[in-house]
Amino acid sequence: MMTKIKMHRKSYLIGMLALLVVFSCVPTQKAIRDADTEVPEHYQNESSDTTNVATVQWKNFFSDSKLVALIDTALANNQELHIMLQQIAMANNEVKVRKGEYLPFVNVYAGAEVEKVGEYTRNGAVEQQLNIREGEEFPEPLTDFSVGLDVSWELDVWKKLRNGKKAAVLEYLSTIEGKNFMVTNMVSEIANSYYELLALDNQLSIIEQNLEIQKNALEMVKLQKQAARATQLAVRRFEAEVFKNQSNKFEIRQQIVETENTINFLLGRYPQAIDRDTSDFIDRPIDSIEAGLPAQLLANRPDIKQAEYELEASKLNVQIAKANFYPSIGIKAGIGLQAFKTKYLTHTPESLLYSLVGDVVSPLINRNAIKAEYNNANSRQLQAVFEYEKAILNGYIEVANTLSDINNLKANYDLKAKQVDAMTEAIDLSIQLFKSARAEYTEVLLTQREALDSKLEIIETKRDQFLANVKIYQALGGGWN
What we know:
Elements lengths: L1 H23 L33 H4 L3 H13 L1 H23 L3 E11 L6 H8 L1 E3 L2 E2 L4 E14 L4 H67 L5 H35 L30 H4 L1 H22 L4 E12 L12 E10 L6 H68 L5 H35 L6
Antiparallel strand pairs: 1-4, 2-3, 4-5, 5-6
């Protein structure tokens, strides 16, 4: 009796020593670096007002009803957005998978088997000597029928499985923010292409108007030549200027086609004309923008929130990787009925069978793969920290650059408007002076060319003002709600 007690104590001591060895080999948790989320209190040369245009829904931000209709169509038909929605569905399913892993698995089974063993084998020799009942030979071939339930359950002592489920939830939330970021970019891209299209239409109109002026000037120079007041050189120079602007028309028309098809692609449809109104492009007012505070970027920008969810998930993945060093504890149980004839299956307790098994499994030797995965989890967590910090820094710089761009574009536009007025007046003056032989034809050509350039430039500046407003709306985190 004493010997058995000593053996039990010895085996218990060995088991405890083994557990101590296992736990002593678990690496110490590396310090998880917290992300630096501090940002300046306000943007440079901007007020500290908390009013933020990012909270405005995109349908209210864009006043052009035709643009709103295009964005609505894109949100319904864009293929890339539908692909992202399927990724969200898969991430949601992954949450369900992880949740099921820490719950018991219950399986039902039923089986039938027939076996014929050789007479000169161990089992065959036993069958020759045994009878199931007196006067009844052992069945040959032997059949076996069974039905029952079996249960397996891994006890989540170290919260490995629960942390896995939490990480999956964070990844799911990350994909939602990824979808929101895609919507923000898509709304901005459609708006940018739309304003680009309006600008091209207006540039085409300006070139056509300028062509009429140049054709009239060409006819005037031809009359001057007939009166011996101008040379053939002047005629050819004016003709060359007309041909140049006629060729520019075809370049702009090609750009219009490509811009329309860029919008059509985002709308998920084949090429067709884009419905738009370009009549008042130059006179359209530019809305003022309220940028709010830099700290609001953390709550408004989807890419920053996505990086934050990825960071939280990476922290949990470190815990999961560490739990791989600990023993896993499992329980298996089963209950059912088994007999060599189906009529005996309902005879209990003779046909009843059950089992209950508990096991503890822990890695002991050759754990390099587990250590490597743990180190990788720590490295991925640090990567996620830097990605989060980079997203915040990038968001702040984008807003700061665009706010500066908006202010400079406004001053630029005001000066270009004065330039256009001056050059428009200069065209009439140069023609009058040329008619009275007080100016050379080259001055008329140069004036017309500079006037055309100034008109095209002011259209581009107006376009850039619209694009800057779209950019600041996107940079502040608007457009997805």
